[in-house]
Write a structure and sequence with these properties.
The complex is a heterodimer of chains A (127) and B (177). By secondary structure, chain A is of the alpha+beta class. Helices cover 35% and strands 19% of the residues of chain A. Chain A has a five-stranded mixed β-sheet, covered by helices on one side. Chain A is globular and about 45 Å long. Chain A starts with 5 loop residues before the first helix and ends in a 6-residue tail after the last strand. In chain A, 39% of the residues are buried. The mean pLDDT of chain B is 91. In chain B, a hairpin with a 3-residue loop joins β3 and β4. Chain B is built from six helices and six strands, in the order αββααββαββαα. Chain B has a six-stranded mixed β-sheet. Chain B is 33% helix and 24% strand. Chain B is an alpha+beta fold and 177 residues long. Classes of the chains: A alpha+beta (127), B alpha+beta (177).
């Protein structure tokens, strides 16, 4: 039976001790992957995997990666929404893992939205 | 949907949208009867009798963002294509249980796919949700219970921390099917 070992969890607890973790609370940027039937069928899970890779490599603790349901724009899937605190959310459409990697570098980390991939800027919020 | 793990993610998301705090996913293989069974149970708000009857109708959905609901009908079709079936039980206020049964060796039975990605996507996207996953598939049974992981982490780090997600992914060995 493959199960998580208590020692492994203890080990990461030790190694991450002292790092500030904001993933549950306050954040600078929230990235939402739209995970409805339409999104999943179009490749949303692959975006989540790609974003997790980027998040891990960046070491950032002020970025929340989350998922939501269908936004009603099924023909534009897979989509993500990037919300920087105190600025308008940007909805990105028809994505693939390479595009989200670029969005992560330039928008999430760099603060510069990529207009080419965006559906619209500032149309709605998720909170 | 390309594989069964994507269907599982989709049905589990239904439970989450229905307010579930716990989603249990079980994959059981019955080699003697050549069956593969997927059970997805949530403790969300459940459905009444009328909605339950209509649940596999693609033109019925509780969403307001669009007028079709394809998740359950697609899974039903995937199961029936192999000579299997889809059963749904639900109780208002208690939750919903979806059981999809497949004839495992059937040529139209889609591969299971990347369950590690499905599970970690659920956990990443919904850090307050508890997920229990069990499988008795060869070569090694797997059990993941975020309730016990959470208890062990003791609030020091969150369950959706990449380090924890990687540990969970490490439990899955790529299965050839």
């Amino acid at each position: 039976m493959a199960k998580l070992k208590v020692e492994d969890l203890k080990r990461i607890k030790e190694s991450l001790k002292g790092t500030v973790n904001l993933r549950q609370g306050d954040y600078r940027v929230k990235v939402t992957v739209h995970m409805g039937t339409c999104g999943i069928a179009a490749g949303a899970r692959g975006l989540m995997t790609a974003l997790l890779d980027k998040l891990e490599k960046s070491g950032a603790t002020d970025i929340i990666l989350t998922s939501s349901g269908c936004a009603g724009l099924c023909n534009h899937e897979p989509m993500i929404t990037v919300e920087e605190k105190d600025s308008a959310p940007v909805k990105y459409v028809k994505l693939d893992p390479d595009k989200v990697a670029r969005i992560f570098d330039e928008h999430v980390l760099g603060g510069h939205p990529i207009a080419d991939y965006a559906l619209s800027i500032g149309s709605e919020t998720t909170y | 949907m390309q594989d069964l793990s994507l269907h599982i993610l989709d049905i589990a998301e239904n439970g989450i949208r229905a307010g579930a705090t716990l989603v249990e996913i079980a994959i059981t293989e019955d080699i003697d009867r050549d069956l593969l069974r997927i059970t997805i149970r949530d403790n969300g708000r459940g459905m009444n009798g009328e909605m339950l009857q209509k649940a596999t109708d693609p033109f019925v959905t509780t969403r307001t963002t669009r007028r079709v609901g394809m998740g359950l009908p697609l899974l039903k079709q995937a199961a029936e294509e192999t000579g299997g079936d889809l059963r749904i039980a639900s109780e208002l206020g208690k939750g919903t249980e979806v059981i999809a049964t497949f004839k495992e060796s059937h040529i139209d039975r889609r591969p299971l796919g990347d369950m590690a990605a499905t599970l970690t996507t659920l956990i990443m996207g919904n850090p307050n949700l508890d997920v229990v996953y069990t499988s008795n598939l060869r070569p090694e049974p797997i059990e993941v219970d975020t309730r016990s992981i959470r208890q062990e982490l003791d609030g020091t780090i969150e369950i959706n921390d990449p380090a924890v997600i990687r540990l969970i992914q490490g439990l899955f060995i790529k299965r050839q099917d």
